[in-house]
Amino acid sequence: MTIEILSAVPELLTSPFEHSIMKRAQERGLLTIKVHHLRKWAINKHGQIDDYQYGGGAGMLIMCEPLANAIDELQQEGKFDEIIFVTPDGKRFEQKDANTLSLKNRILLICGHYKGIDQRIRDLYVTQEISIGDYVLSGGELAAAVIIDAIGRIIPGVLNDETSALTDSFQDNLLAPPVYSRPVDFRGSEVPAVLLTGDPKKVDAWRQEQALQRTKERRPDLLEKK
Ligand code: ADE
Asked: Which of 172, 3, 188, 138 shows the shortest CA–CA distance to 81?
């Protein structure tokens, strides 16, 4: 899978994909990430990509031409399966969206900045608008990094233990159960005895019950979706 990103501040996107699971996904050839600097498609030699909005109002917008020219040029290599604008007024990103996107071949994420992007790019090019939550970040880059991480880790073959993505929180509209490692006794606090029985059926039943209880307490809204 190839994920490309159009950004006015590409420096924000260097480190998130250079470590851990994202690094491994790229080394295994399962994921290619290409960050494109929007200024490459600036409208003049001053590197201009933004302008005032018609009708007045504070803040600049990313203009049509740099975005349209960038997308047109990138699509000369082939069409994107999805062109996603990352924006706080988009549809809220959930695990099921990550699952669906992880099956695509080539997608583009556009990071907004300033007051956003000209509406005509949204109308003419964008196929999905995604928000990572009800708060406003200073730009779309960190949100794009979150979305790419969520997609990248579930591409088949990326995680060593294939089952570990299936038992993540949210995969079944349930939060994950508590987990324990050594020592059995940490400052008087002990690992639940059932986890030491070596009986996989009992362990599974306990985890299921704990996941349900945790979800009831913290995210009862998820149980309504089941
Ligand atoms: N850009 C700024 N805030 C954002 C958010 N919450 N989600 C996606 N993109 C954003």
From this structure: 3
